[in-house]
Amino acid sequence: MAHAFKLDYLPFEDYLAGEREVEVRSEYVDGQVYAMAGGSELHNTVAATFHGLIENALPDECRTWQSDMKVVGKNAGKHFAYYPDIMASCEANKGDDPYVRDNPSLIVEVLSPSTQRTDLKEKFDNYITIPTLLEYVVVSQDTPYVRLFRRRNHWQSESYFADDTFALESVGLEITVKQIYRRVKKEVGLEVRR
Questions:
Q1: What residue stretches are annotated with the Putative restriction endonuclease domain (predicted)?
Q2: Which of 14, 27, 136, 178 has a C-alpha 20 to 30 A away from that of 147?
Q3: Does a structural domain hold residue 8?
Q4: Which is it for the CA torsion 99, 30, 149, 145, positive or negative?
């Protein structure tokens, strides 16, 4: 999701408490709060389709969330909180706050032109400090292209295109890139327009 505007400094605990009662969700990075803009139809369709594939593959003891569950952590002593497009975990929530997770095994972000820099740099740098995270997936919304970063590969990028198949080891799913884009074939160039 795109950041709409930056708000003033706020202590992390105040952010978490206040976020439950706001109409506009915000993300948090080291005292700065960023209100979030909504995603496009294309963004939401790609995210929802991918979420469904992950949800259907998960064992019963695992859970997945789409864009309304916060992930929180700390990088170099600085708190962060984001709303990933998709997040999954097979562990019980460590904290007692049912609105946040600090132990995902998988995080997925769907890129748009306005979020690409944040998702590939700031969020990447923060997400990989989460001890339980095994995989971070970045999905293009405009073209059939997936980048997969794995802890076991020291977070090196793996690239997958329309006809490729890849495995999400964290949730036991093997998937083709085309499956993620099955509802938006025309928009991403997988179907010739007539």
A1: 12-176
A2: 27
A3: no
A4: positive
